[in-house]
Amino acid sequence: MRVDGRAFNEMRKVEMVLDYIKTAEGSVYISVGDTRVICTATVEDKVPPFMRGTGKGWVTAEYAMLPRATQTRTIRESSKGKVGGRTMEIQRLIGRALRSVVDLEQLGERTLWMDCDVIQADGGTRTASITGAFVAMVDALYKMVKAGTLPRLPVKDFLAATSVGIVGTQPCLDLCYEEDSSAHVDMNVVMTGSGKYVEVQGTGEEAPFTPEELHSLLDLAKLGTQQLIAYQREVLGEAAALIGGNAVENTTD
Amino acid sequence: MRVDGRAFNEMRKVEMVLDYIKTAEGSVYISVGDTRVICTATVEDKVPPFMRGTGKGWVTAEYAMLPRATQTRTIRESSKGKVGGRTMEIQRLIGRALRSVVDLEQLGERTLWMDCDVIQADGGTRTASITGAFVAMVDALYKMVKAGTLPRLPVKDFLAATSVGIVGTQPCLDLCYEEDSSAHVDMNVVMTGSGKYVEVQGTGEEAPFTPEELHSLLDLAKLGTQQLIAYQREVLGEAAALIGGNAVENTTD
Amino acid sequence: MRVDGRAFNEMRKVEMVLDYIKTAEGSVYISVGDTRVICTATVEDKVPPFMRGTGKGWVTAEYAMLPRATQTRTIRESSKGKVGGRTMEIQRLIGRALRSVVDLEQLGERTLWMDCDVIQADGGTRTASITGAFVAMVDALYKMVKAGTLPRLPVKDFLAATSVGIVGTQPCLDLCYEEDSSAHVDMNVVMTGSGKYVEVQGTGEEAPFTPEELHSLLDLAKLGTQQLIAYQREVLGEAAALIGGNAVENTTD
Amino acid sequence: MRVDGRAFNEMRKVEMVLDYIKTAEGSVYISVGDTRVICTATVEDKVPPFMRGTGKGWVTAEYAMLPRATQTRTIRESSKGKVGGRTMEIQRLIGRALRSVVDLEQLGERTLWMDCDVIQADGGTRTASITGAFVAMVDALYKMVKAGTLPRLPVKDFLAATSVGIVGTQPCLDLCYEEDSSAHVDMNVVMTGSGKYVEVQGTGEEAPFTPEELHSLLDLAKLGTQQLIAYQREVLGEAAALIGGNAVENTTD
Amino acid sequence: MRVDGRAFNEMRKVEMVLDYIKTAEGSVYISVGDTRVICTATVEDKVPPFMRGTGKGWVTAEYAMLPRATQTRTIRESSKGKVGGRTMEIQRLIGRALRSVVDLEQLGERTLWMDCDVIQADGGTRTASITGAFVAMVDALYKMVKAGTLPRLPVKDFLAATSVGIVGTQPCLDLCYEEDSSAHVDMNVVMTGSGKYVEVQGTGEEAPFTPEELHSLLDLAKLGTQQLIAYQREVLGEAAALIGGNAVENTTD
Amino acid sequence: MRVDGRAFNEMRKVEMVLDYIKTAEGSVYISVGDTRVICTATVEDKVPPFMRGTGKGWVTAEYAMLPRATQTRTIRESSKGKVGGRTMEIQRLIGRALRSVVDLEQLGERTLWMDCDVIQADGGTRTASITGAFVAMVDALYKMVKAGTLPRLPVKDFLAATSVGIVGTQPCLDLCYEEDSSAHVDMNVVMTGSGKYVEVQGTGEEAPFTPEELHSLLDLAKLGTQQLIAYQREVLGEAAALIGGNAVENTTD
């Protein structure tokens, strides 16, 4: 029995609210248990210097936590004057994960800025950010398709992420903060709708893990990400039908 | 007739949700029209160096906007590596305003960190922050009173803020972003429940203003802040009764 | 009786030395009591990005204090690696105030950089900076008029600033540092030659103030700024006659 | 056939020179093909604030590249004034990996600072750094054991790292820079002498990968890390015998 | 004939005003031709960490230029967020030079902060700073002697600095900015009252120089520094008599 | 007798390895006693803004030490977020020294970036850096001559540097760290092959020095730099023959 009464292979309650922020091109509010994140998408009509002239677009992410997202107040990175290592690692992960399912050529020379701001943290903020940012990104791109700016949705597959870990000796799905703090092995897995891996990041700082343990964790991650993708499909509505290369025209057949 | 159909002396719709963030000692979500701010209070059991040994407490504020609170994305101050002048000016204003109604001796050697994070901006973010932060602060202090940590609520009066300005030639109450952008005169007023001024910050960069115009604006500000204080009273419930020096014991008489 | 023997409505001794710095396009040394500031004007033939192509000019200000302008040494902001909140607030105020009396269209696509460096501080450094910077700015612009670079002086009105405050229960004009430290209410007022307000910044952190107190303070501020403008008129000599839209040609009539 | 003529499961030439830097407590020069890294160990008799009073030690790492380690000059992070995201991610990885095999209680309240400075880069700099830093760390700790400062070597197991990836459709071991640039899947694996995983970091930004591909890569990684550990054993000489909990006394039996 | 009509071995006009800044413990305004510098001394009753417990004091210097000290405006180092290499080099030089004539043991565990702020620059700002800072330092220390805080003046000798250089083929004394810009060889020399060298910093970036040229320059530097020391002696009045170890008591014999 | 047994006029053992770093256009590893430096040259086909359009090139240098180059670990400047004063002073010195022997017109609009990274420090790191960087620079330029990119080697003379100082009362050549720490006078001298001075930087912070002592030190410096230049000539081989304006064609006569 886990600290919050869940079974080892049970996710926390998930909620997603589309178009949560009026000022953004795409947005979603996602909660996974007590972890709550605001994800927004910004579309910019240019790309970073290293992509110019390639005809391809780019997806980048920024991640932050409000100071009181945590049990004790965290000093703002703007006050410290620099972005910390953990933050950079997470935003590089989110950007990389999202790019893996975007057809950058179809996107054209545009940059998608994905902002993930954690307003309350209870473990799994990076995976909730990826799962939510995917929805906010599709939201923004779908509006461009409807407006005729894009001929088709440049999204190749669904994408969701979850954390898994070994608590005591038990592999568990979707760790809350208390579990995460005491886990010996901690792994974040990003998977596509077709069941492929985009990111596998497992660390056994407290205790190196065996190949068998690795397999158990990967199985749990698959279970969790597939459930998250089902939620995404629901909240995205008709936009969901265009993922994977279906053109707008075809969906009306 | 104003851009959003309001009368010149009419405020936008106000909403406040108490205890919006579970991880913080006090918190409120405040919306004033489309301006939405999350305010949290953190209680720290020590004071900054310049206050040590005085027996008095301190109240300080930090203010920030999510990148997509605005119509076009604003670069994070953490990415720029420094806090901008506008942000510093606003957080100094919020801190000063809140301190004016706190009895720092009764607070004791503690620091209240008030965080105001704008998640959507449509004008008046600093005044909404002050109005909301006051509620979050009372929320946190009232819990300390109830827990016996503080003998009485160290809050001397209510406090609320609004913006006023001259749009065209018409003095108006509670400017939205579109009005604010075109106003010739822009003024932020912070007032107490007893109708005294805590801050009067008027600027006529576009057009210097006459003493008569100043008076019209101050009258509107009084109207607006008194309405906001009525909302605060409502959302604070029984904590409201302790503001102004009433001890907990007395309220049960 | 005040700490330095002045009446409540009496300013400190004021001195202004025009063209104090040979290397600058315009400059003045101003002392108000023991507060001493060097103000210089720099003319740059381009504007910041947000003004490009508008045909209009810009005025911006920077403010600093030498480390030993104060009774105890203040660490340089260059050593700290960042400009503090108080400094930013002051330089934003100076820039805004000066812009209110400059005809930015007549200035053309040029930037005026106004530097105010306090070499000795005894209260009222920001208001002395505004009063001095106005003179240095007119000095630089008048030279451009004389050189034929500008057809007329793009300055609409005189501009001066003073501080007022409530010391004990007495509203007083032009606070020195000792008074400022103990004042309950502190207000900086920037006014034009025609008696309009450009900035009204009053703060009652120590004690909120009533509408009546506000009026007394504003009356004192008017008295002080009009005296300062008389000094400015004197030191500026023939340039003074061109303020408010009089063309050079007319002055020779 | 690979770009440099190796078989898919063949590592590049490895060289390690112990005690390469006289001024450091422990040091090694490691080359893996044309990737060359100087690793040093510093022993400090205190721990970071979050570890104080726990009786346990800490291991932390810093990683950098000389400007001309790369084919085109890279700007120094000291000149940019901040440490980049990639650098932070790598030094967090190195530190975490090393801590997994150190008995922090036996180490006592000391910090090991592991510096990994890449003097020439040709792919796999982070994995070469981990492999080399392990040797430099054991070097420093072994000297402490010999000097009687530590009763036994607080190192639980060997540790080495390698990169693997899918180049074209071929899983390959130990990618050089040219291969790494064109790989669809890129994975860094850190393993112990007993064949357990410490870190598995696989990313399929270019192309998500299947469970089967994951297994092939993990097999190659095991092959490579075991060869590296054989080299470590050789260069460490008698210190190698103390890894895994053997006391100094026992080795002389 | 030089650009400003001086002979090759002639210094510019020198002026020194003692106690120029009321708020500082010691201060001087020095002008050497059109180069004008405000030098202040601050006495702090503690020393930097590396000197603690040694019983000795420390002397450190900071140097800056106002933005319009120069013909074109120089961006503030506080705005750039870092102190430049030239500034650091100069302040290290000033501190080192002053320390060479201070008896740090007699000073006791105190730090002298010497601030040199150039308000107008026309070449030789670093040497004018050293010459002026010496006077401001003696000014502050002499007050401590008179107040009984120090038993005797902890200053071993006079100290002054000048620049020399080869303009065309002519060695010249005390270069102004125009000469400095075109000089092939540029040398700053700091000397004591007894004619010893404290700093010799010659650079022939434009044209390496011969031993004979070096000697001519050193001769000119001696001439200039001895004249500057005569000025210092005059402005320091009775404090001058205590330099070199004479106790206060003795001077009244 | 000196601390390491050398005579007062004896240099430490010198070693230079050309082309030490494959990735750089020119490189050398230099050791002078236990001081070891990696010097690389980068050729960039543009110049800094202040040189654009002049037809001339530029030479700039960066200097750093690995954290464990020193007996106790030095914090990385990238971690501190700024480059220290000592580092800036040294890299300005190296750049200036190298430029003095380069014909910047013949170089054309190119920048040479010279990186000097100290991997082990035992005194004299800046002079070893200059001596080594000269070789790495010639190495890179000679390759450009051989490739036909440059018509002739734009190097006017040899260049080497050494430190001298007064240890006790004895002037000594090439101080090691232990001597340097206790020297009363410390001087760095950069000289050309033809025996001219490029930089003379002597400081007598501990004890001002006489003209006679200055001459003794300069004589020792000449002895040392001429020996270093003999080494440079040897390691540079045929490139050495082109220094001083000899064209490639001529060398085959």
TrEMBL record, chains A, B, C, D, E, F:
A single GO molecular function term of this UniProt record: 3'-5'-RNA exonuclease activity
UniProt key word Chloroplast: no
Binding-site residues, phosphate: 86, 124-126
Keywords on record: Nucleotidyltransferase, RNA-binding, rRNA processing, Transferase, tRNA processing, tRNA-binding
Keyword RNA-binding included in the entry's annotation: yes
Gene3D superfamilies associated with the record: GHMP Kinase, N-terminal domain
Enzyme Commission code: 2.7.7.56
Catalytic activity: tRNA(n+1) + phosphate = tRNA(n) + a ribonucleoside 5'-diphosphate
InterPro entries, sorted: ExoRNase_PH_dom1, ExoRNase_PH_dom2, ExoRNase_PH_dom2_sf, PNPase/RNase_PH_dom_sf, Ribosomal_Su5_D2-typ_SF, RNase_PH, RNase_PH_bac-type, RNase_PH_CS
Span of the signal peptide: none
Domain Exoribonuclease phosphorolytic: start-end pairs: 10-140, 158-222
Enzyme type, top EC level: transferase
Biological processes per GO annotation: rRNA 3'-end processing; rRNA catabolic process; tRNA processing
Role according to the record: Phosphorolytic 3'-5' exoribonuclease that plays an important role in tRNA 3'-end maturation. Removes nucleotide residues following the 3'-CCA terminus of tRNAs; can also add nucleotides to the ends of RNA molecules by using nucleoside diphosphates as substrates, but this may not be physiologically important. Probably plays a role in initiation of 16S rRNA degradation (leading to ribosome degradation) during starvation.
Subunit description: Homohexameric ring arranged as a trimer of dimers.
PANTHER family: EXOSOME COMPLEX COMPONENT, EXOSOME COMPLEX COMPONENT RRP41
Family indicated by similarity: Belongs to the RNase PH family.
Stored HAMAP family: RNase_PH
Protein name (record): Ribonuclease PH
Organism: Polycladomyces abyssicola
